[in-house]
Structures are given as C-alpha cells and as structure tokens.
From TrEMBL, chains A, B:
Chain ranges of the CMP/dCMP-type deaminase domain: 5-121
Protein name in UniProt: Nucleoside deaminase
Recorded superkingdom: Bacteria
Matching InterPro entries: CMP_dCMP_dom, Cytidine_deaminase-like
Length: 156, 156
C-alpha cells in the first residue's frame, strides 16, 4: 500500500476542485479550508472564466463557501498553487493558522511572507499540480497572466 | 464656493457606498475603482452581513463590479478605510496603480506596504469617514472584529 500523508489527503480535495475548474473551461486552481480535526469547512476553485468574476480565486471561493466564522486560527487552507498576494492577504488578515501548498514551481506568491508572519506553511511540490499548471499556462498564457495581473506579458 | 479636490470627489462615491451599507444593516465601508480619466469602473461595499459572505470586503466588491480587465496600472482604488491585508493583497497582485484612503485612524491595514511596493497612496483622514467607523466600532465591536479576523478581542 502507498503511504499517504494527511497533507496529501487534504490536497486531494483541492486538486479535485482544480480538475473541476479545468473541465468547466476555467483556470485549474482549487482550494479547500479545513478545521483542525480535518473537517471540510469549504471548498472552491478559480472561477474567473466560469463566472466572469476576477475576484474569485480558489482560496477566496473556499473561504466564502465556509461562511462567516469568528476564529480561523485552527483552520488550514489547502491550495493547489502558491497563493498570490490577494489570497496571501486573505490568509494573513483572517489569521488562518496553517497553509498547505500543492506547488510553487509554476508560480510563487506570498507563502514565504505568510511563514514569516507565523503561518505554518507546507509546500508539497506535488507532481500532479505542477503538471496541471505547466500545461495550462503553456496553452492559455493570456488567461493566466490576466488572472495574476501581469499586464506586461500581455503586451509582448 | 468650497474647493473640492479630485481625490475628495472620488472618495464621495466610496462614502456613499459606505452609507448604503450602513442603511442595509451592514459594516459601513465603501470603495470604488476608477480609470485614470476619472471614469467609474466599479463600486461596492462590505456585504458580510447583507450577503452572509465574509469574502466581500468593499474593495473586493468594487473590483468584482469592474469585471474582468487586463491592466489595472492606470486605475485608482478609493476606499473609505485603510485596506486590510486581504484588500491590500488584491491591490498589489493586480497592479492597481493608485490608492486613495478615506482614513486610517480607526484601522490601519496595508497602505504603507503598498506604498513601499510602488502604489501611489493618498490618505485623506476624512472626518466623515473617521466618524462613521468610530461610531460603528463602538456600537458593533464583535461584528467589526469578526470582519478583520481578530479572534482575541471576541474572547474578551
């Protein structure tokens, strides 16, 4: 039997969301918010394309799905890709205690900044996540750069 | 006649949104995104209470209302209150060029961090905005601390 760490099991939920987004024609990034005991509080995916909404990054979507809460200190945000500044800011502002990142090879956002501010950060460098984003960026560069606000690349 | 600076005229739109939110029973923070020529691209308000959605801060709502865009460098985000880390991260990630802050006396978020990263930041310390939040925080402390993820204060 293959040994599966808890972090990888949590990542599986985010990865399923990413695949769901891809199947919808969207940007394949997924996320999920869990309580300390592993209870799923909310899951979501990037829906820039599907909803025409630039504010719905995967982490935002999972955070929204979890509803209003008073204390995030014992929660864990799991995301297939290193969180951008927008999503890193979300994690810091609401005091989410832990962050599990699928990969930071295709894009590196604010996960080191979060670690510097007390968030327990784990980066898995999961091969499935790397492959998913590598292929997506190669096939849809303009959409990808739009999603992370990189206007220079769109002019090239 | 009273002399009105352009920044104050832009702030008026955000302040109207804040009052709208207050009238709905919500947290009175408003925001608006403008193009370089002063064209309004989107306006919005905090809707944690109204929509039961913790991800809708005023800046997020204005950003969403502006729809998908490829380049934010010549846009200005105007907000009645210093942006929290979540909203500061939004401004940084999407390369919004300018930020006008109504006030930073009742809450100070990431506006200095944004200035350090190249955003042109103006803080007006507008008396209406200060009074609005001062009164709201005094009357609804638990709701306010929930909105900025300060769990410690809720335990007191």
């Amino acid at each position: 039997m293959t040994s599966v760490t808890p972090a990888q099991e949590l990542l599986d939920v985010a990865y399923e969301e990413a695949l769901h987004g891809l199947a919808e024609g969207g940007i394949p990034i997924g996320a999920a918010l869990f309580d300390a005991d592993g209870t799923l509080l909310g899951r979501g995916r990037n829906r820039r394309v599907q909803s025409g909404d630039p504010s719905v990054h995967a982490e935002t979507d999972a955070f929204r799905a979890a509803g209003r809460r008073r204390d995030y200190r014992r929660t864990t945000m799991v995301t297939t890709l290193s969180p951008c500044w927008y999503c890193s800011g979300l994690i810091r502002q609401f005091g989410i205690g832990s962050l599990i990142v699928g990969e930071s090879q295709t894009f590196s956002g604010g996960h080191d900044w979060l670690a510097d501010h007390g968030v327990a950060v784990t980066v898995l460098q999961d091969r499935r996540c790397v492959d998913l984003m590598t292929q997506f960026i190669a096939e849809h560069p303009a959409l990808w750069y739009e999603d992370i606000g990189v206007a220079d690349e769109l002019e090239a």
